[in-house]
Design goal:
Collagenase (Catalytic Domain), 216 residues, binds zinc ion, alpha/beta, two-stranded antiparallel sheet, 2 domains
Length: 216
């Protein structure tokens, strides 16, 4: 296993439902496509983290997690508020995006770079991959050394969300998943099912189930 842990509070400890919001718009894609990608990325993680639910809200005050874009140190939200960015891209020009751990939970994307849906063209980055990586941090993962893994430390256009990070995030959330499973027999079956679904080798399967407290 190559996944590592990211510091900070796990976002999912207290609530089964988490609301996310995009607080302003990047310059490369229209809002419709930005939200399509953002919701696809949340869904990709949600799929592996039942019973947690991640829901988009247009109400910034209801949101647990904010995604916003910054070019320089002052950013303007869609509601007109201006705030100073937590992270200075001008001083850290090589950084594509930043994710703060829970509970503040913001993801800040560097709008000095070019983003697209498919990363075609020079110096263009696949927004889905960048967002998926940052949310992996929010879910409690650090950087991974596994090849072509979405949690790799630097951008890789071929990176995907692999078994390694899925097991990593499920392990970090194991206590909550276990509580949900204990309280609901159907959930227990489901938890077992999706844990087993991502692992091929019986030995690794057993050790993962042991970590989740589902098998001795
Ligand atoms: Zn990272």
């Amino acid at each position: 296993m190559a996944f590592t842990s990211f510091g900070g509070t796990l976002p999912l400890d207290d609530n089964d439902t988490l609301y996310y919001h995009m607080a302003n718009d990047g310059t490369d894609l229209d809002r419709y496509h930005q939200l399509r990608i953002l919701s696809a990325v949340w869904s990709a993680w949600e799929y592996h983290l039942w019973p947690f639910r991640f829901i988009h809200t247009e109400d910034i005050n209801k949101a647990d997690h904010l995604t916003f874009w910054a070019k320089d140190d002052i950013i303007t939200f869609r509601d007109g508020r201006q705030v100073e960015s937590d992270f200075k891209f001008l001083k850290n020009p090589g950084v594509l995006a930043v994710q703060f751990s829970a509970p503040s939970g913001s993801m800040i994307l560097n709008d000095n770079y070019d983003y697209s849906l498919d990363a075609k063209g020079p110096n263009s980055f696949d927004l889905e991959k960048v967002m998926k990586h940052e949310l992996g941090h929010y879910m409690g993962l650090g950087h991974s050394k596994a090849p072509s893994e979405i949690m790799g430390a630097s951008y890789d256009e071929n990176a995907t969300l692999t078994e390694d990070s899925i097991i990593g995030v499920q392990t970090r959330q194991a206590k909550r998943l276990q509580i949900a499973a204990t309280n609901n027999p159907a959930a227990k079956r489901f938890t077992k099912h999706f844990v087993m679904g991502v692992i091929d080798k019986p030995k690794r399967k057993r050790s993962c189930l042991q970590r989740l407290g589902l098998k001795r």
